[in-house]
Amino acid sequence: DAGVIQSPRHEVTEMGQEVTLRCKPISGHDYLFWYRQTMMRGLELLIYFNNNVPIDDSGMPEDRFSAKMPNASFSTLKIQPSEPRDSAVYFCASRKSTYEQYFGPGTRLTVT
Amino acid sequence: AQSVAQPEDQVNVAEGNPLTVKCTYSVSGNPYLFWYVQYPNRGLQFLLKYITGDNLVKGSYGFEAEFNKSQTSFHLKKPSALVSDSALYFCAVRDTDSSASKIIFGSGTRLSIRP
User: Fold this and answer.
1) Which residues pair with B12 in a beta bridge?
2) What is the pLDDT of residues A16-32, one digit of tens each?
3) I need a labelling partner for A78 at 20 to 30 A (CA). Which of B30, B64, B68, B93 fits?
């Protein structure tokens, strides 16, 4: 099993640009989660999906952030326009009916 | 509201000594508890969980955790620490307020093992 796959691993962009982060969950997992990790705020849940349907997006910071899951094997997190305060490590995680989540390696985003 | 607390930002232990990383929780209903470890520049890795059954739960890399209902604690332990155990450790609890699909993570404890 390849585990959760995220791309890119590193992204450096300028303020105002659109950023798209990608995630492929573990096959057969029906929940997908997007998290953001910073030194100041720790680990924050942004949004999660069940069977490709967004269930709770209360953690999404503002309208600049959006997430989609068009099918069971792919999800995107988009930031448009990006701002320096969006700089963080973004993690994707997936799980089945048991509650433990499996995390991807993360995307380190730097917005200058 | 559900919550989990890790009272120590950092724990320092000499190699070969036992280690304990503390976690306390507050939930309504039966707690589902987890420990995760994060190595530098990596995602979180699942270590172990408590759902029901024996209060002492064994997990990966020789770690174990003890569920104590009366003290609402779920401390992570290892009898003999290794330098390679140095990492960031997160305690987590299922959020029973929501649809129970979310888990709430603690703020993390940095474990440092000196040779």
Assistant:
1) B112
2) 999 999 999 999 999 99
3) B93
